[in-house]
Amino acid sequence: MMSSKILAWVTFLYFASFTGYLIGMIRGRDLWGKIASGAAAAGLLAHTAALLLRWKESYDLGIGHAPLSNLYESLVFFAWAVVFLYLVVEWRTRNRAPGVFVVPVAFFLMAFASLSPNVNDRIQPLIPALQSNWLTSHVITCFMGYAAFTVAFGLAILHLIKGRKKTGGTSRFLGLIPDREDLEELLYQSTLLGFVFLTLGIMTGSVWAHYAWGAYWSWDPKETWSLITWIVYAALLHARFVRGWRGTRLAVLALVGFAAMLFTYLGVNYLPSLHAYM
Amino acid sequence: MGIKQSPVWSFFSSLRLTLVLLAVLAVLAVVGTLVPQQETAQELARRFSPGTIQILSTLQVFDLYRSVWFLLVLGLLAANLVVCSLNRFPVSWRLFKAETPADERLFRDLPPERTAYPKGDREDILARAERALRRRYRDVRREELDRGVVFRGQRGRVTHLGVYAVHLGVLLILAGGVAGALFGFDGYVHIGEGETATAADLQGGKGQRNLGFAVRCDRFLVEMYDNGMPKTFQSDLTFLKNGQPALQGALLVNHPLTFEGIRFYQSSYGRSADGKARLSFTAKGEKKTEQTVTLGEAFALPGGEGTVQVLRVEEDMMQMGPAVKLGIRSDRGGIQFWVFRDIERIRRDNPGLYDQVPLFNPGLFAPYIFALEGVEERYYTVLKAATDPGLPLVMAGGLVLLAGLMIVFVVDHRRVWVLVEDARGKVRVAVTGRGQRTSAGLDRELSDLVRVFKEKGDAQG
What we know:
The complex is a heterodimer of chains A (278) and B (461). Chain A has 278 residues and is mostly helical. Chain A is built from nine helices and no strands. Helix content of chain A is 73%, strand content 0%. In chain A, helix 1 packs antiparallel against helix 4, helix 2 packs antiparallel against helix 3 and helix 5 packs antiparallel against helix 7. Chain B contains eleven helices and 18 strands. In chain B, strand 10 and strand 11 form a beta hairpin. Chain B starts with 6 loop residues before the first helix and ends with a helix. At the A-B interface, helix 7 and helix 8 of A face helix 2, strand 7, strand 10 and helix 10 of B.
């Protein structure tokens, strides 16, 4: 399939982009950062084209559906959303530092999707439970949320590195990281965005569950873990908004939230679940 | 002592309590996903001692999400949410009213691009300032300062109240969940194709519930894709009230049907023995006779040696394939034995079978030898039946919560002040503003306002 070939190149571009961000960060040259952004943007364009192409290919096979229906397709879409949101943040803030931590996540997702023997990249027809208009909105909102949390995760790591400045000497690397206040504001904004999307994802999911399974909430492990993730991020927002938590404590909470999110997405597959197909 | 000074109130009003409760809730939820719940918990019972299982059951670990612990934490959280919201509300209300008078300090150290010296007389400029603000902001107020006149426009102050909508939404969802658990029900209805059911098996083995009407499965249909994945399951149902058909419809996954307030969902399906089997038998030297038999029915052997009754029909007897159990009564007395379809294979795998288990010998009633050609199977459908009176509350809660989130995170409370003052014979206009968040939007709005005075002033001059 054409789309799979494009996606292999996209994986390579994201790796190139990550390398560029890394060299740019170590050597402190802007040129490398520009190359990295270019590679990420080119990758995103090709990625978008591949997703649309895969959509079309599924119609050619006579089982047309949006490419959001199994683990492979969700990994590919997750990576797309991560790069998309990251580039928006980079463009809005004119700072490339978070790229070193965010773009490799997209690279790993793509590599995992294409290399893992447990991930089937064939276009498959939809089983009856997935034949619903809610599939697309549920998956898109959830993964936009995941992607925003991934960006927040990259920012949180930067924040923690910047916080260790006193122990090391002054380095160009640290100099390129934005101020902790700016990082924190960005971290907060990404978390907010992710929180709104996760809320939407849980809601579209429960409307769908109401129609498909006859209960808007069944304490299925995936549902439960999405609630745990929601609770962690709700705690983060309250800690900052009401108790005025700042700095390291907030960054650590963002890491905890990211871990919960990853478990919601991948770890739950090892527990018995109604979401077995994802 | 007012209620707000009581220790109970102060206990529930702490955000630390919220964070602790959220953490406890998260930990309980983690436990609930790691420990098998409800029916699946029986697996665990085999691996642990009865004493351990007893203790864990008493602690309701196997039904955690309906346990006293979990409900207690949810209840505390709800109380905490209510008290915290009430406590904080006056602060938010003051921010919402936003009635603090304009302060001179707002106009200190303004950059030159935020000021203008328009031509025209003072009254004219005042009118123009008010018009410009009213066009952009619904809420405009005029104040007199020592320096001059200040107009204040604002929008989006509702953002201070959004968080209460979010909290109300959470409470409504919790209330809806409780109402559903108390007054709703949740069960499964198994119906064979062509059969009728009048009751649902309640979840968790809590007995049955009479539906008050009958459901007949007229036809069950299953379609597969070429690769063997299921494509469609469909039950064609007829709902009967007092024996009369009242509603007919096709039930598919993702497309529930409602009858008399009970919602039906296509949950799963299976195949089971229909109670019909195709049996053949031969007496020595005679021609083979084939016959379709039904569970419970009896027929006479052609030679009049006795009557055969079908006692059981199994689609998979002891994992050895389809089998029927026959009972033959004759003047020799009664005799019972099993007839397997795959008897040749079973004999090959178990040498000496007929000596060890004579009951499995299809030739036990000599001179006849019986054989099973096949067992007829038919589909049965499994429907989920549920009512949930809490649903409207949950839906309302979800919408309110979502609206609240949007109000908190998308709406920005922006206030803009325009000062009109006399400055050495000219009229000076200064524009400034404040938002809840740092954003480029407010800057654009302010530049846009200043331009009103610069361009128009130039044009008039």
